[in-house]
Amino acid sequence: MRLNILEIKPTIKCHNFICYLELLDKNYRPVGLTKFDEKYLPKILDYKWHLTYYGYVETKVKGVNFKLHNLVLPKKEGFVVDHIDHNTCNNLESNLRYATHRQNMRNRQNVKGIYKDRKNWRISLSIDGKSVHSKRYKLKEEAIKVRSNLVKKHFGEFACIDKGGGRCIALK
User: Fold this and answer.
1) Is residue 134 part of a domain?
2) Are the C-beta atoms of 50 and 33 separated by less than 8 Å?
3) Of the segments 52-66, 100-114, 138-152, which one has the largest average pLDDT value?
4) Is residue 171 within 8 Å of 157, Cβ to Cβ?
5) Has residue 116 been placed in a domain?
């Protein structure tokens, strides 16, 4: 027996004005959850959403791919939508903001910029293609702290601070 796609209904649960939508793969198996503000529920129910290879929540509208974060924050010339916490399945209004492409790249994860140079640790930080810092430090922790302060100073709210090991946290 072949399944009718219209019979497949995703699971949606809402609590305290936040909704969670179960995302299905092409074989209709659950692969993840996305969350969004409850006020967008009527629009979201109009489409079948899925998780892309890159981790974005997407649907097709008149044959064109459309991302859920663009339903929350519509496209704006010269800007992209940035997920502040780096979680592309967190589509709450409070987690999304407009950013230029450059700002969004500054906020990406896994930007270490610290490496071992003979006996010392060096910081690598470029802004607009120019190196802004190249001192050496005996301790890795000291280099991480200095680089974190430089990133905060130069990138402001779009800073992504490396806590060591390549995992970043976004500043709120």
Assistant:
1) yes
2) no
3) 52-66
4) yes
5) yes
